[in-house]
Amino acid sequence: MDIPNQRSSHAVPTPRGGGIAIVVSWSLALGVLWWLGVVGDDLAGAGLAALGVAAIGLWDDYRSLSARIRLIVHFICAAVVVWLLPLNITPLAVNTAVSVLLVVALVWLLNLYNFMDGIDGLAGGQALSVALGFALLAALVGFNELMWLALILAMAAGGFLCWNWPSAKIFMGDVGSGYLGILFGVLLLLAWQHSAMLAAAGVILMGAFVVDATWTLITRMLTGQRFMAPHRTHVYQKLSDRWRSHTRVSVALLVVNTCWLLPLAYTVAFSYLQPLFGLLIAYAPFCALAIGLRAGVPPKEAVTC
Question: Which is one Gene Ontology cellular component term of this protein (predicted)?
């Protein structure tokens, strides 16, 4: 049960751990696809590694664990995923360096998803819209393996969203947020094996969460705050306080993902824009919003919705 506190954006005790539904449904679907020969052993193994993240998240939901233990498990699971889905870059030294960076990036991705799961409908809506974007782009380039995995993830997220849309009847919890984060990392690695352009398009699709979480963390570190401590200084939290609505923020995210990030991701995936240029264009408004709302800077007072 999630009990409201000073950091919370809700005022009513709400059950958490609902993300287990996403974990079970996607894992079962992956098993079926593996049995049918649609996906290989490497991807099935990566799915098992992702279950490690879900397991430690479920444990933390019901019996709080130290950040150190969680991070150790996260790094182990991320390393297994990168090992199973290699990019095979030459020379070997470059491949090793890139692999290490990818492990760190995966750990950050699954943790930032956890940080961004703070208001009703936000994390589920992000998962639904980004996964659908992945599925659409994969279908257009003829990458059926990625298309099916992303589509199944979208359906799992959509089913959960029915229970998490404002006012939420259940919360995702660490079991779901961390799992979604590493799954999107798996999809990105899979996309990169097809083409760097498709992977860059995937990074664009996740822009709202990446910028908000990263900008906020860096700001808190640079200003000498206890950056590991709970807080309410993300862009989405400040918007929900300002608008006094979870629904408006979650709907706004869906609109931005669909009308801004998806078209830009398409132009990069099909080489109409260079990846770096596309990323800069896509991320610029989110950076401007973070500056305008002073993301990472504590508000004068907290407001619950």
Answer: plasma membrane
